[in-house]
Design a protein that fits this description.
Elements lengths: L31 H9 L7 H4 L8 E3 L13 E4 L2 E2 L3 H11 L6 E2 L49 H32 L6 H21 L4
Antiparallel strand pairs: 1-2, 3-4
Helix pairs in contact: 1-3
Length: 217
């Protein structure tokens, strides 16, 4: 909501993650049953009407409930596990990445909630797929960090995707600010030094955050 964008969020916490600096590989061979089961699936293109079976979570805990109101990019902190995929989708996922049998999902602001993908109980394997929880609006502060993925990713690919994503945000911000400045000028309004300096400082912080994530090791 527009009114929420005016609330200054407190600084994001420092993320303490794995100390691994380079991409790691499994030390044990992949179980043969996973390979055999993957070969049985007939590959097909993703079709939402066939492969999605979304069931809303029974409960969503808010940031206010955990004492972090106005922190982060969303008022929601974490959801209960909820159904997302159909059985057919799970078969396709297992064929590609050997995912677990249940196919549930959780939405959380991981930077504010300590979490870990533990060993699966009651199943034979567990592979976690993670996608970034990021704001839709480019004007909302983006708190994406690479701490949890740097040690399991190829640096060139990771930094390329991260840089492209962040520069796209910056590009949208600049276009929006440029449009606002042109409209101000056309309306014969005075230049707002405080406003522009504040905007520039936010972009400076944005670029410094990128420098903290793209590191030479």
């Amino acid at each position: 909501m527009p009114g929420q964008l005016n609330i200054q969020s407190p600084p994001a916490p420092l993320v303490v993650g794995p100390t691994t600096k380079d991409v790691t590989r499994p030390t044990d061979p992949l179980p043969q049953y996973l390979i055999d089961e993957a070969r049985l699936a007939v590959r097909e293109a993703f079709e939402p009407s066939k492969h999605l079976s979304f069931q809303p979570p029974e409960r969503i805990m808010t940031m206010q409930e955990i004492g972090l109101e106005h922190h982060g990019i969303s008022p929601n902190a974490v959801s209960e596990p909820f159904q997302l995929f159909t059985k057919e989708a799970i078969e396709q996922i297992r064929a590609e990445v050997f995912s677990d049998e249940v196919g549930t999902a959780v939405v959380m602001q991981g930077r504010y909630i300590e979490h870990q993908a533990l060993k699966a109980l009651g199943g034979r394997e567990r592979i976690s797929m993670v996608t970034c929880f990021r704001p839709k609006s480019p004007d909302v502060r983006d708190e994406t960090v690479l701490t949890g993925v740097r040690g399991i990713s190829h640096k060139s690919e990771l930094y390329t995707q991260y840089t492209e994503y962040r520069l796209e945000i910056l590009e949208e911000r600049i276009r929006s600010k440029l449009k606002a400045e042109r409209l101000r000028s056309q309306a014969k309004k005075s230049f707002d030094i405080t406003n522009v300096r504040g905007w520039l400082m936010k972009q400076k912080d944005f670029l410094e955050a990128m420098l903290a994530e793209i590191i030479e090791e």
